[in-house]
Amino acid sequence: MHERSLTYDVVVVGGGLAGMAAAAAAQGSGARVALLADGSGTLEMASGCIDLCGADSAGEPVGDPWAGLCACAPGHPYALVGQEYVEAALDAFSSICAETGLPYTPPGRGTNQSFVTALGGLRPSYLVPGTVGLPSPGGSVWVAGFRGLQEFHPHVVASGLGKSLPGARVDRSWAELPLGLQGNDGKVHPAALARRLETDAAYRRNFVRSVTLARPGGAAQDLVLVPAVLGLDSPQTVQNELATALGATVGEVPLPPPSLPGLRLAGRWRKYLQRKQVDIVVGSRAVGAVTGGGRVTAVVAQAAAGMVSYRAGAFVLATGGLIGTGLEAQGFSLREPIFGLPVENPDPANARAWAGRQFLPPGGQPFVRSGIRVDSSLRPQGWENLWVCGRMLAGYDPYAERSGGGVAVSSGWKAGLLAGGATL
Amino acid sequence: MITEYDACLKCSICELHCPVLRVEPRFPGPKNGGPGYERLRAAGQAVDESGLDFCLGCRTCEVVCPSGLHPATLVAKPKARKVARHGLRFRDWLLTHPGLLGAVGVRLPSLTNTLLSWPVARIGMDRAIRLDHRRPMPRYAGETFRAWFARRPNPWGDCPAPNGQVAYFHGCSVEYMLPELGRQTVAVLEHNGFEVVLPPQRCCGLPLIGNGAVLAARPQAEYNMAHLRPLVAKGIPVIFTSTSCSLTVKQEYYHLLALDGAAEVAAGCYDISEFLVSCLDRGILRTDFRAVAEMLPYHQPCHQRAQGIGTPAIRLLRLVPGANTCNLDAGCCGASGTHGFKAEKYDLSMQVGEPLKTAILETGAGRVASDCEACRWQIEHATGTPAVHPVTVLWEAYGLGG
Questions:
Q1: What is the 8-class DSSP label of residue A247?
Q2: ipTM of this model?
């Protein structure tokens, strides 16, 4: 009686990196797009760095990510997406990020770039946010912590960095933060600090002075590493003011989840899609679909007032894997709840086939490769107007291969282009 | 069965988005203050709940939670227990009964408005009952919306309207303070071929719920349910122009108050923009708009975002030729209904709204559109920029104002 329904050309289910890339691509091809999101994507838990390929399927590090990508097994998402699409998608990603004022540092030809983790390790990635620090061998580094900010310990970072950058000089110290943000226990929340630094020029001046005072003596360091809290949305102002005062390059170190570089990336892309008139529906959980004869006619989503049908000519499924809640697990059985797509997973009768005894084996845990099997047009077999992308895809391990961001962006982009094209 | 606090993964995404935690270090935040404290209480441990009152109830945490939890509801629990034991303080009682002050206000508008805008009286009220003197009070109208509606003839006469009937839940703000918005809403709906009916109604109960007086909200909610249910059962949609009322009837009557038939009524409730977009989708929305030349930034109220309906107002405003609309997407305005009127919350309210204020001033626009009256009052107070309901813009563009 009170049926709620809305009609679009393309409906993308999932608001993470893959879903936003799909929405951007579909919109770019001229389609009217709705993007349904339930909760913030796992994007905001990630470092904001876009991995392409850092290791092969056995976990052996690869120097050239493009060579690693070409060596992927036939059913791997990269093999299905194809190198031309991966290149085009990463180019599109970089130019959209630059257009929205959040530029990424491009890597040299055929290499990865290494950023510093909160434990002082060096982590290979492909595209890195412009504010993230990239140490070079043989340089001198100062790791500056901010007192009260619990997520970042300069001594831990410096000691790790001493091992990962042999020969480099690594200094470390704590800077006191100006008053105003400390709770009763003296703790400072990273989001509160980021917002204050971004919006309050007087606080920023005191902060820069305080950091300058904490600089260890001796020869000046060429890179100053600070926790990634230099702004919720626009960290460049703080970064520049700090760099000018210190006469050194200032680089951020992504913190454990949740992460501000991830939040900035998600926020900039959301605003980009809004400007492009993509209808973003947050707080909307897709729970089912209307299908028949291999075609989807509508996705049904839960809103406060009840169910809403989103009708469209094409649909993109980008709801993430187990962590993103796109797959539901009941014991050794995995389920894709919206369309009921068959999930490729290890033998349910054999627990050992799901996970080995080692917690983090070099080649990854087998269950991580679970997901939806698709063909090279990224559609599951038998479906005409349903495309699948991102962490939902079967046959890869983003953690062991360091390929999560690249698969999300490229499969999302290709799925969006094909879905958009199919409706026009 | 996993209890709600155990379903929290401690991912902290709510903390990253909470507008209060960003400015108020004494607030424990949605993760600790919600599922965290709940877990401690369940284990019989003493918890310092004093900071929880800083929560504005914006529901941002509920929108961003990847696990589908309702941290804001958990954060509000201790306050509700306190109010159940000790009752509301006088100021909060006054703020949570808009109909009482409203009934006086519309009978004696010039006296009430003069008194409420007289600085000496405001400082006195600030001292006596902690009603912040810096916050302008909304002005009362000379006639209630219902009185106006009752004395006008039905424009459809005896013939049924081509697109049928809609019921209008106008809420307290339209009834006592913004009857012109109610008149514009009626005109826009009639222009699109609907007959408007006014079901008997009381305050939706959100001010009470937001101040912890959940039990006191129940009789009003039951009254509203009793009058809306038969209409919804007949297939008549219920239209709201206040997003706080619509969120309450759609969500809280079911989730918080668990009223009989609440889900069924919720299914027939629409925010006005949501309803007009559905008319657009069905091809029955008139688009005979006059061209305008106006930059019109739009602020989405938190209570509309929490409804999971997207941003229908933007789609409507983009139908008006020459209306250059953008989504400000700058977070909570900070008013949060009655909170912004309280002396102890005023500064927090203005700090929370700072990014929105900056975003509005950066556009340089002559006015802002937003669906919630509390957001509009806050925008006007903070930026000096007039703020209108999206329906007002449509009413003008249809040429219904002459």
A1: T
A2: 0.93
